[in-house]
């Protein structure tokens, strides 16, 4: 591990974490004991001159989605001004880090690096950087316009699974390498891309934001770099084959810069912020990372733990000691221990699908009645299994449809309401258990499930999760955004003595609340055999 930077701390030090998400720029500060002291945010659509809806601009083709790069720059101006107006004590900030929506990219024009190093405190950032980008619009994670480039990259690397083994994921339209490939291929014929050859540096959203605070180009970190289809996650360096496939002859490696560990102290904050806002000149900028890796830090996952986010769509994130990439899901370098990895699975059919079936089978759209119907059936649903895709699914890739099998394995067309609802919930979480196992997750005696999102208050659903995963389920009071909170935690960890583990750095953070415990006999006698059946039926 690299040597830590010695920083003289004020009497009441603060650590700051930022998060530039799709719709907001957020910041949180924590004290020495990791208690939240301040929170601020800027809603991007409130900067109306940029014309965004939900923080993005959607093209007429229905698949190209971007954000104006200067929107993000001006959001930093607005956020810091708001903090200054409300008396935020910038002078107490010892270090800061941040996160950004994954996969998005920023294209700095030749000469922009020189402007960054000579920012004038009498002017705003957006005034000084308005001509600093070779592309005015940054591709973002919602973009799905690169199907052709995805197939080309997979072919160049020997197929989708071979690409996954190198970069952690098969080719995805939103991933940065495929976005770069599209721009490179169309730079001669598309007006928006005509200045691409003048690009001096390509940043991710996270390293772009870090660059603003550092006053020079910030390196891409290993963890966020894992979401590009360009980083060799085992060797933690750019894959030369992937770079050449995306932009042959362009020297993409030089424009990306060398990737670094996510705990790197990049250097002191730019003098611009010292003079304009009163930051200490010794305040250190720690490498920024992606929002999903930063959320892993914010939820303080350890080996064996799993976070299940129960939102409109569901996500599963876990810490794993080895990389076992598959055609489903993603494997990233771990943001708090680069000798380990984090795996992530995303599901479009989450709470929205559960709500659809609740409305179909209950009066007055009642969760109470939904849970009552669940309780009328036994764990394992007497062997009945259902798979339900109210929306096209991405894990696995599938169109809409409803599929039901009875205990003998025979397909059937309908279930009674109480059987249907248990089949839905059990099916959703058996899928998550099966897919997590394939990506390398192993439950240990100390494993915890951290449930977040709207459905984390539903104890009937949480009990099913506990029994399927055979682990205690915890919930967290979401007093702060987990990505920005994770950035603040990492800002503190990066300044601790060399060899300090992240878990030690965050041991004073607020505890999670244990909600439910598993019933082990149900996991081994009921759900393990049922999960094997589920896996066969899904395939």
Structure commentary:
- It is a single chain.
- By secondary structure, the chain is α+β, with helices and mostly antiparallel strands.
- The chain is 35% helix and 21% strand.
- The protein is built from 19 helices and 26 strands.
- Strands 1, 2, 3, 6, 12, 13 and 14 form a 7-stranded mixed β-sheet that branches.
- Strand 2 (24-30) and strand 3 (36-43) form a beta hairpin.
- It is globular, with a radius of gyration of 24 Å.
- The model has no long low-confidence stretch (mean pLDDT 94).
- Phosphorylates D-xylulose to produce D-xylulose 5-phosphate, a molecule that may play an important role in the regulation of glucose metabolism and lipogenesis.
- It is an enzyme of class 2 (transferase).
- InterPro entries: ATPase_NBD, Carb_kinase_FGGY, D-XK_euk, FGGY_C, FGGY_N.
- It catalyses: D-xylulose + ATP = D-xylulose 5-phosphate + ADP + H(+).
- This is Xylulose kinase.
Which key features would you list for this structure?
539 residues, alpha+beta, 7-stranded mixed β-sheet, 19 helices, globular, EC 2.7.1.17, kinase, FGGY_C, Xylulose kinase
